[in-house]
Amino acid sequence: MTYTISGQYLAACSCAVVCGCSVDAQPRDARGGTDCRGLAAFHIAEGRLDDTDLAGVDFAFYNLFPSHLTAGDWKVGVVIDNGASEDQADAVGRILSGQEGGPFAELAQFIGEFLGSERGEVSISDGEKPGVDVAGHTRVTYEPLLGADGTPTTVKNAMFGFSPEYGIGRAHGTSSAFGLTFDADYGEKADFVFSSEPVAGGAKGRV
Fold it and tell me: Residue 197: which pLDDT band, with cuts at 50, 70 and 90?
């Protein structure tokens, strides 16, 4: 089976700006905590798993990283938007679990506990005030950090990342899902491409 999905994502976590997970550093938050509690919400603009069209599906991936990423023992859970069909939700679940190969299969070795999958309303907004709303769980907004020329600050070619280059900034709001509660401080957003097969540049996407 093969898949390719692409679109936009927005992530937020408890880490003080800038989150160290991208370089496999020990997480640290503004209150002295040493784990990373966060979520990344995705809108699939185009994509499919074999014959299942995944365009328009939104989902939120929740995480607890208790130490630097390669130390493992991650706890993860996922909320898939109510608008997705059962076939679409099943396909997304298989991709995220690593069953269909690609970057998520490479990361499966670090997961210590899967906290479950839920259906719910997942909304990702862009424009002047980007943010994520997962009904009953999460409401966060994102404000980009700006460089000297006034354009958004970006991170490029990180060891771990959902995109080869992504914007970073401050997040505001709270989240509580799968027993993982946090106040958002750090945020990031970009376009993404994930695939079970090599994509442009010879990679399978980045995570």
Answer: confident
Q: What is the DSSP string of 180-206?
A: EEEE--EEEEEEEEEESS--TTS----
- Of the candidates 36, 26, 25, 111, the residue with the CA atom closest to the CA atom of residue 76: 111
Residue with tokens 């937020």: 12
Phi and psi at residue 23, to the nearest 5°: -115, 20
pTM to 2 decimal places:
0.94
**Residues whose CB falls within 8 Å of the CB of residue 126, separated by 6 or more in sequence, listed in order:** 8
Which token pair is 12? Answer: 């937020």
**E-state strands within the chain:** 3-13, 36-49, 52-53, 58-65, 74-81, 111-120, 122-125, 131-134, 138-144, 154-156, 165-177, 180-183, 186-195
Identify the pLDDT of residue 170.
98
The structural domains of the chain, with segments of one domain joined by +, span 3-195
Measured distance CA(105)–CA(196) in Å, rounded:
9
The arithmetic mean of pLDDT across residues 21-50, rounded, is 96
Distance (Å) of CA 190 to CA 119, 134, 137: 24, 19, 22
Sign of CA dihedral 135, 178, 125, 150: positive
